[in-house]
Design goal:
Length: 75
């Protein structure tokens, strides 16, 4: 559970200057889905990472970058 919260913070922190608050609230629950998908990819590739660094930082960070383009306010 703590890793899912950390993944949400990673995704929202990267796009917080560009995203309106309602979209930031939407990004949080969607990030958890991407986090669990990253855990499944890690399982399929037989990567043994006890800290779950790949799903928390790589997958959630990439999702945060996509959210800037998708939900970001025009400048």
């Amino acid at each position: 559970m703590a890793n899912a919260v950390s993944a949400t913070l990673v995704a929202v922190t990267g796009c917080c200057p560009f995203v309106d608050p309602p979209f930031a609230i939407l990004i949080g629950p969607l990030t958890v889905l991407f986090y669990h998908g990253g855990c499944y990819i890690e399982y399929l590739l037989k990567l043994h990472d006890g800290a779950r660094v790949f799903p928390v930082h790589a997958v959630s960070g990439f999702w945060g970058l996509l959210c800037v383009g998708e939900y970001g306010a025009p400048l």
